[in-house]
Amino acid sequence: MDTFNGLPLHPLIVHFVVVAVPVAALVGIAAALWPVARAKMGPLPSILALLALIATPIATTAGEALEEKVGHSPALETHTQAGDVVIIGVGCLFGAALLLYLVRLRPVTDRLPLTEPVLKALDIAARVLTVVAAVASIYLVYKAGDSGARAVWGEM
Fold first, then answer.
1. What is the CATH number assigned to the segment(s) 3-153?
2. Which residue ranges does UniProt annotate as crossing the membrane (predicted)?
3. Is residue 75 within 8 Å of residue 150, measured between CB atoms?
4. Is residue 5 left, alpha or beta, with left meaning phi > 0 and alpha meaning psi from -120 to 50?
């Protein structure tokens, strides 16, 4: 299915990705840098990142179907290449956000034979990875979206 109610599915799903990825990224950054927010949000950052991760390949697949209908162009090729990389950033964001949640989850950490300094190092690594993956994800979505707009509307 590459259309919905006669409209191409790609732009409809892409708008979800364009909102979900930055929201997941910003929530992840807040959880990584603000301990109170992290405690209150619990698994929310990883859930939002998972939703974005699920939607990303759906948008990519719908985009490939749309590309077959509209034909190829250099601008569209640039957009396709940029869009294909978004899943890497979002996948990293999900993994980092999940690690950020799990490293503080006592039922998990109590079962691991890790010392407190190792858990603290894991926590710091999870925080840094979450921030880096969040920034990278936002940039990759911006790059794909900008090249997509240029492919549709031309140089602005």
1. 1.20.120
2. 12-34, 46-65, 85-103, 124-142
3. yes
4. left
Taking only the tens of pLDDT, the chain with its 156 residues reads 677 777 777 888 899 999 999 999 999 999 999 999 999 999 999 999 999 999 999 999 888 887 777 777 888 888 888 889 999 999 999 999 999 999 987 777 778 788 889 889 999 999 999 999 999 999 999 999 999 888 888 765
The residue count of the chain comes to: 156
The residues, ordered by sequence, that sit 6+ positions from 41 with a Cβ below 8 Å of its Cβ are 27, 30, 31
The runs of H, that is alpha helices, within 34-43 are 35-41
Tell me the C-alpha distance between 86 and 73, whole Å.
Answer: 20
Q: Two tokens at 50?
A: 């998972």
Q: Please name the residue that has the structure tokens 């920034």.
A: 135
Q: Kindly report the pTM of this predicted structure.
A: 0.89
Residue with tokens 């299915």: 1
| The two three-digit tokens of residue 123, written as one number | 């926590």
Token digits of residue 64: 């490939």
Return d(Cα 78, Cα 115) in angstroms, integer. 48
